[in-house]
Design a protein that fits this description.
By secondary structure, this protein is mainly β. It has one domain: Beta Barrel (Porin), CATH 2.40.160. Helix content is 12%, strand content 53%. The chain is globular.
Length: 368
């Protein structure tokens, strides 16, 4: 090989190496990825008495928020696109078991993968429902399954026997399996989303869940509107008989589907924040149906370094068991730091024709 050829070959190799380095650098510039671990632990001690039941004293999880841990990540694909994923699991710190209850799904809070773009976000997997998001954002006790009156009226009623003997409440969980969701970009505080969940069984394509939601945040004012429709809970056909009464004398046999509409408003005056919600639940059966009207009002007020909260919810069904349901709660949340707070709360709960229930206690919550 002569000198000229050798020199040309070395030049070509150097150029190729430089091009490879530049390509790698260019790729890393938009293919950055990250993974984050996070969660919270919430434990409380106190007294719980469900309507029509005896009181119990003990230590429990999720006084103000259900304990969970999660991890999420994203990869920048360039051009405003990102691949995203989230895996989140509830747990009970009081006994070290996973899930909110025995038999709960491991990643019950969220388990999805998706794509963000300038035109919105698409996610698929197990997804938090839009109704749950609207329910917790527009009441002062947020997502407390222990002290929030509105959470009690929405999620602790229908199909939750023996905790409650009632035909009020929403079918299903705060998350849907086999779901796909599209969320719009934010337009000056206004955003929307639509979700569809499949039955995932051959010959059962008519079994479905779907919902639509709008959210608006502008200065001190916020609002939401959401509607969801379901004709199954976990598997197609599983809502045909809701065990309201184990003797069988009172049932909602032949329940076919349910539609729920909810609106919510908040207004923050700094020295007091007002909350309001209204929900209409329509239950359709094989032979007849009934509906439930639910309203909730509440306030949160800065008091000292912390926040005082109060909320009242009222529901009444027409048909079915012809019940009214009233729940009121007061509480105080005291921040020890940006991540840790102490709280104390009392809740009164009453259904027609049942002895009153109550829950009171104090707890600690820390985030990581």
């Amino acid at each position: 090989m002569n000198t000229a050829v050798s020199r040309a070959l070395r030049t070509t190799l150097k150029a190729s190496a430089l091009a490879a380095v530049l390509a790698a650098a260019s790729s890393s510039a938009f293919a950055q990825s990250s993974v984050q671990l996070y969660g919270q632990v919430d434990e409380w001690a106190g007294v719980t008495k469900f309507p029509g039941d005896n009181a119990s004293v003990g230590v429990g999880g999720g006084g103000m928020s259900t304990s969970y841990w999660g991890m999420k990540g994203d990869e920048d694909l360039g051009g405003g696109y990102k691949a995203i994923f989230t895996l989140e699991s509830f747990f009970r710190a009081q006994n070290g078991q996973y899930g909110r209850f025995q038999g709960d799904t491991f990643f019950a809070r969220n388990a999805y993968v998706g794509l963000e773009s300038p035109y919105g976000t698409v996610t698929a997997g197990r997804l938090t429902t839009q109704l749950f998001v609207s329910t917790i954002l527009f009441n002062p006790f947020i997502d407390s399954y222990t002290f929030s009156p509105m959470v009690y009226h929405v999620y602790l009623g229908l199909s939750t026997f023996p905790t409650y003997t009632t035909d009020q409440g929403v079918i299903g969980d705060s998350g849907w399996n086999n779901a796909i969701q599209y969320s719009t970009p934010d337009f000056n505080g206004l955003s929307g989303s639509a979700m569809y969940a499949f039955g995932n069984q051959a010959g059962e394509n008519g079994q479905k869940k779907w919902s639509v939601q709008a959210l608006y945040f502008h200065g001190p004012f916020a609002a939401t509107a959401v509607y969801q429709y379901v004709n199954f809970n976990n598997t197609p056909g599983d809502i045909s008989s809701i065990p309201i009464d184990p003797s069988g004398s009172i049932t909602t046999a032949g329940l076919k589907s349910q539609g729920v509409g909810q609106i919510g408003l908040t207004y923050d005056l700094k020295f007091v924040k007002f909350y309001g919600q209204y929900m209409y639940t329509a239950n359709w059966g094989q032979l007849s149906g009934w509906h439930v009207n639910t309203a909730q009002g509440g306030v949160s007020v800065p008091v000292g370094p912390g926040t005082a909260m109060a909320s009242y919810a009222y529901s009444r069904d027409t048909g079915g068991l012809n019940q009214t349901h009233q729940t009121a709660a007061i509480g105080y949340d005291y921040p020890l730091s940006k991540r840790t707070d102490l709280y104390a709360a009392y809740m009164y709960d009453h259904y027609d024709n049942m002895s009153s229930g109550m829950t009171y206690g104090a707890g600690i919550r820390t985030k990581f």
